[in-house]
Amino acid sequence: MQDEPRPKSHDSSSGTLGAFQRRGEVIKPAELIEVRGGEKITLAARRIYNQLLSNAFGPDMAAEGQEYRIPFCELRGNHTSNDRVTEAILSLMQTVVRVRMSDGSTRNVHLLGPTDVEKFGPGIATMLTYELHSKLLPILRDSQIFARLEMQILHGFGTKYGMALYEMIAKRIGLKHVLYNDFETDELRDYLGVPHGKLGPFAALRRKAIEPAVAEVNALAPFSCSVDVAEKQGRKVTKLRLSWWTKSVEEQKAQWQAQKEKQDDLFSVIPPEIINWDE
C-alpha cells in the first residue's frame, strides 16, 4: 500500500487524544481501523466497540488501569434484551487483531480488557464497567492520525463490510490532494473483515462484500466512493483502487432527507448543516 501523507487532523504536539470529540461523534485512532484478524467481529460488535471508544475518549484514555462505565441501554439500541450486547462484549475481549504501529512494526493485541456487569435489583444488567487492554494503551497514546465517525451513520449500516469501508474513508477524507488508495486484494479483504475461506473468487468478493459496502457508504456517508480493479496478473485481480470524493451540498441534503424517512429515530436532531442549506 502506498505511503499516506498526514491528514489535516494530524497534530504532532498533542496527538489523537488531544483532539476534540463532538457530541454524537467517535474519534477513532487510525491504527484501530485497518486491522487484520477481526473477521469474526460482527456488525453489532463493531458498532458497540466504537461506542465504547467514544465513551472512553479523552486525554486519560491511555492511562494504565483506567476504568470506564456505560449503561447497557446505550449499547443495545432498539433491542430490549442484553444478549446481543453480552455476546459482542465477550467477542471483543477474546479477539486478537494485528495492528500496524506508527513505526511500521506489528502488534497482536486484544481489543478489550476486563469487564464487569452491574445489576440493580433482580432485573437485567444495567451498567458495564470496562477497561481497554493494556497492550492497546501505547497505540492510543502514540497515535497521531484519526478518523471522525458519526454515530448516526454507524447505526445506519446493515453490513459490517459497509461500516469498515466507511471507517477507512473517514480516516482519509481530510487528506489534501489524495483521492484514492491502492490495496492488495487480500489486504482489502482483511480490512473489510471477510472471514477466511469465504468469498474466495473475486466475483463473489465483489458481489457479496465490496458492492454492498460501497452502496451503503454512498447512501449514508457525507462522501461517496468506488472500488475498482487496479491491477491483474493474468485473470487474477491482485490490486484494488479505493477512490473517494465529498458529496455536493444538494447530494447531502437529498441523502439526509431520504435516510430520515427510513430511520427517523436516529434523526431527531437536525444538524447545523441542514439548517444552513436553505438560507
From TrEMBL:
Biased composition regions of type Basic and acidic residues, renumbered to the chain: 1-11
A GO term, aspect molecular function: DNA-directed DNA polymerase activity
Region annotation (Disordered) ranges: 1-21
Full protein name: RepB family plasmid replication initiator protein
Positions of the Initiator Rep protein WH1 domain: 26-169
Record-linked InterPro entries: Initiator_Rep_WH1 (IPR000525), WH-like_DNA-bd_sf (IPR036388), WH_DNA-bd_sf (IPR036390)
Similarity comment: Belongs to the initiator RepB protein family.
GO biological process, one term: DNA replication initiation
Gene3D superfamilies on file: Winged helix-like DNA-binding domain superfamily/Winged helix DNA-binding domain
